[in-house]
Amino acid sequence: MLPRTIRPAVCLLLAVASGALAVAQTAGSAGDDPRHVDASQFGERVSLGPNWLFAPNDNPAYASAGFDDSGWKTVSTNKVLTDYGIHDIPYAWYRLHVHVAPRMRDVAIEVQYITGSYELYVNGVRIGANGKMVGMRESSQDYLTAYDIPDSMIAPNGDLVIAIRFAIDRMGPATIGTSTPLGADCVFLASRDAAQRDASYEATHQTATYFALFGLNLIVGIVALALYLAMRSQAEYLAISIALLAVSLQSAGTIWNHLHAANATNDFLNWLTVGIVGVANLEFVRLIAHLRRTRWLLAMEIILFLSAFVVPLFGTGLWTGLVALACFWVPAVINALLLPALLIWSALRGNRDARFFIPPFALVAFFAFWNFLPTLFYYLHLSMKIPPFPYFRPAGYGFSLWDVWSVVYCVSMLLFLVLRTVRIVRERAQTAAELEAARTVQRVLIPEEIPSIPGFVLHSTYKPAGQVGGDFFQFLPVKGGGVLVVIGDVSGKGMPAAMTVSLLVGTVRTLAHYTQSPAEILTAMNHRMMARSGGGFTTCLVLRADPGGKLTVANAGHIAPYLAGKELPVENNLPLGLAADSVYIESSFQLAEGQQLTLVTDGVVEARDKAGKLFGFDRAAAISSQSADQIAKAAELFGQDDDITALTLARTA
């Protein structure tokens, strides 16, 4: 008995060995001599090659079965054309002389993993093609396509001449850049039944990865878009959505190419999405790193987008190799290296979000550099060899390292969306709780009832803005008659402002039992402000109205009171909390019977209309004789931008 711990591994090895044996029995090799390939007993499927006859030029006569190809060079599909000293050719022909059993029927040719557009000929007759032979050319055909050979096309003696004409993609495949159109195990001779089964199998397995990538990127992209629409301030979500939806579109185009004949439109859309993804990623990193959109970053985004079109245009012959290298690969590699560099720079400055994205973007930088070196060596005709970009086919399911990175990238974006959204929701909940607490404090401190003071009529109106502000006021009766009026505005918003208001109002209420001097009250309030370590300042005005109408005023940087449509010329001193040795000077005035004194906060004079125009001191003075409600309403209708407080003190007979 095998130990239980190693049974799964042994079963897996046996399964792999069985699969390999089955494949070996099904797909064999036809031989090494391209002029005499014996496939008379090939069974269901045989690989054609690895040796083919090769011509690095173009001539329609090469398709003919009777053409003399005795002078052609023999090349191996296990090597790249640069190994034979062949560089930058627009067209090439591959030929193979195959012998099958006489009167053989139901035969097909399978083609897969081809780089560049091609036309397939059997005994001089074209039986299939992929892409355009002029103009924009396809970059690759990863899917399997089966072409039936008509029974009448097979010669009585069983001879077949297979010729393939290639319009070579001079940029090379997307991962290697060697411009070798035909690789090992790319062309097979098979029975029609086997070809149909293989095509169905390949369509299922080779597209499975792209279906998975399409669904994953589409779902996360839609989630990012929905979150952006719910939180417009998070521009990063929009960049994520654009990038992922573009990748899903790219995967959809690849699926189409696998299930249908490739065309130039799909190739163009593929490179369009490459440009969109590049720009979206750069914009995302800029937002994550909290960088301004400078001219050089904007220029980089434009160049990155336009450079993606170099590859399809290069197939038209409008570009030379070095021009394409400079116009496409250099911006792409610079961008790939720039993204992790910006993230590392931002992470060193304490940006936690930037740290999260360093691994996926560093990985894509490595892959981009890996791709760039073979292309560079190819166009510079350097002999140094770089391992080709690996492609894996476990159990028939194909994927590359780019696909692995795409999954890592998509999962990273999803985690970022979840973590960032949870953090925002928590912060908003905390802010809402603090805001409600601040409003509760403010409601307690703002007087609900105005005291009745003989000889005076008092009115107040308070209109808070969206956030909790720092406006406060108090009406405190004075022993022996009269009233003490306090109005002020604390800098800042929210809970800190509310707590400062609480401190100052408590100070005023306590001091009012011991002194009615406005200057002494302001001095004590300033000392309390200076004792706080939170900083900030407060404008405040304290006014005492005696029964005979005498007004004693001390002002700490607040708006002066209005009397008879004009500001009172009170002595203006520093706001509270700026200097410990501030001195507050009192000013005296007389309020006649029937006159009204008006006090406001800066929410009135700083009200702003849609054009950005301020309500201003002149308008405030013009309406100062109106009631407190009318004054506050006028400022609110003009365009409230802050808390609005208006107090009126009228003397009666």
Any overview of this molecule?
Mean pLDDT is 81; it is low at 1-28, 171-178 and 315-319. The chain has 653 residues and is an alpha+beta fold. It is built from 14 helices and 25 strands. The protein is rod-shaped and about 130 Å long. Strand 13 and strand 14 (399-400) form a beta hairpin. Strands 2, 4, 5, 6, 8, 9 and 11 form a seven-stranded mixed beta sheet that branches.
Q: What key phrases describe this protein's structure?
A:
25 strands, 14 helices, 653 residues, seven-stranded mixed sheet, 43% helix, alpha+beta, rod-shaped
Topology (SSEs and partners):
Elements: H1 7-26, E1 27-29, E2 37-38, E3 45-47, E4 51-55, E5 73-76, E6 91-99, E7 107-111, E8 117-122, E9 125-130, E10 145-149, E11 159-167, E12 187-191, H2 192-230, H3 235-259, H4 264-288, H5 295-307, H6 310-314, H7 321-348, H8 352-379, E13 391-392, E14 399-400, H9 401-445, E15 456-463, E16 471-477, E17 483-490, H10 494-511, H11 518-531, E18 538-545, E19 550-556, E20 562-563, E21 566-567, E22 572-573, E23 586-590, E24 596-600, H12 602-605, H13 616-622, H14 628-639, E25 644-651
Parallel strand pairs: 1-3, 2-6, 19-22
Antiparallel strand pairs: 3-12, 4-5, 4-6, 6-11, 7-10, 7-12, 8-9, 8-11, 13-14, 15-25, 16-17, 17-18, 18-19, 19-23, 20-21, 20-24, 24-25
